[in-house]
């Protein structure tokens, strides 16, 4: 198994991503899948990091905070090479979508083309702690619906990558998104991820066109109860935390 710092996402995998399709799906539903983004070896290498606390700045036990059951760890800087690459190579493709959404919703914020420039903005505002994380669930664990905000500066899209094999490593534990439109009941969506699949989704709000123009839809995400086994996920959040 390769060391994570020696790994890089193969260019042909990024080149195979249909960014136009991804943008259309994000506009339409607030989420878009990228099948097979990581290999099984890359997934296993990330999972293996979880027991080595030298890679992380903190550990959160969800039950202590009312977040659900299970736990997660935030990576420390410098990030492992693969995590850093996911952050820096995806951001430039997502920034134009984020800017389009801001304009549609009448939000003044605009996002620079380069992720390092965006992190400079976060750090200048006191958001200096890295937010990429690994999550671990066992039987009976779940993650309540939530939003990963962390401070004044919030990049409106984030990514989750399933590292475990459904039906082999675990059962249950579906990734769930909800959408709350004004004067309507909440709509849930289950995203059918396999090992190595990524989903990009709205962190907080997304624009939706209605009869009277554009309005903001509130999005949340979580994980249903794991019925058996162990489930691991990597989360790539593009803003840092206070």
TrEMBL record:
InterPro entries, sorted: DUF2086, Oxoglu/Fe-dep_dioxygenase_dom
Entry keyword annotation includes Methyltransferase: no
- Give the Pfam families listed for this entry: Oxygenase-NA
The organism's place on the tree of life at top rank = Bacteria
Residue ranges of domain Fe2OG dioxygenase in the record: 128-241
What are the record keywords, sorted? Iron, Metal-binding, Oxidoreductase
Similarity-based family = Belongs to the iron/ascorbate-dependent oxidoreductase family.
Query: What is this protein's name?
Result: 2OG-Fe(II) oxygenase
Q: Which organism is it from?
A: Dyella caseinilytica
């Amino acid at each position: 198994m390769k060391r994570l710092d020696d790994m890089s996402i193969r260019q042909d995998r990024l080149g195979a991503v249909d960014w136009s399709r991804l943008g259309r799906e994000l506009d339409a539903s607030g989420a878009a899948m990228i099948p097979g983004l990581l290999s099984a070896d890359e997934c296993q290498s990330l999972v293996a990091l979880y027991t080595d606390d030298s890679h992380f700045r903190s550990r959160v036990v969800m039950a202590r905070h009312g977040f659900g059951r299970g736990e997660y760890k935030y990576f420390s800087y410098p990030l492992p090479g693969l995590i850093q690459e996911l952050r820096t190579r995806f951001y430039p493709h997502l920034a134009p979508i984020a800017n389009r959404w801001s304009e549609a919703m009448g939000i003044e914020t605009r996002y620079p083309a380069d992720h390092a420039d965006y992190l400079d903005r976060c750090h200048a505002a006191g958001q200096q702690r890295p937010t990429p994380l690994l999550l671990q669930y066992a039987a009976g664990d779940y993650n309540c619906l939530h939003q990963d905000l962390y401070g004044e500066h919030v990049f409106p899209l984030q990514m989750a990558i399933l590292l475990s094999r459904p039906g082999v490593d675990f059962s249950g534990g579906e990734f769930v998104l909800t959408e709350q439109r004004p004067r309507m009941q909440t709509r849930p969506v289950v995203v059918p991820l396999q090992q190595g699949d990524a989903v990009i989704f709205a962190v907080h709000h997304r624009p939706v066109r209605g009869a009277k123009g554009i309005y903001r839809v509130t999005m949340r995400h979580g994980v249903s109860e794991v019925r058996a086994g162990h489930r691991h996920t990597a989360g790539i959040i593009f803003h840092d935390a206070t």
